[in-house]
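Dear U.,

Please find below the material for section 3 of the report. The protein was modelled together with zinc ion; I have listed the sequence and SMILES used, followed by the predicted complex structure.
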Amino acid sequence: MNLIELGENTDSEYDHEHRCSANKHPKADRLVHCVTAHDEPFDSWQLHNIHYADETEVNLGEADYVGEITYHSMILVNYCPFCGAQLKQS
Ligand SMILES: [Zn+2]
């Protein structure tokens, strides 16, 4: 999922993504900079936790297909929780 698709899913716009090798699950744990949320100006770094269904969950009937997003949460962050880099510029 690219930043445009992520924005369509969350009704927000993102202009940067922080990527580092300390993040072992970069597809599931995304650090992005948000510039608008619900058409309002915004300036914050966010950690998005996105869960993609696997085959087991499909077999259990918990998801319709492998790769379906079944869980998506977000918290605001000032630092990368993986490498410690400061994201928010003061
Ligand atoms: Zn990092």
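For the text of the report, you could mention the following: Residues 3-77 form one domain.

Regards,
Y.
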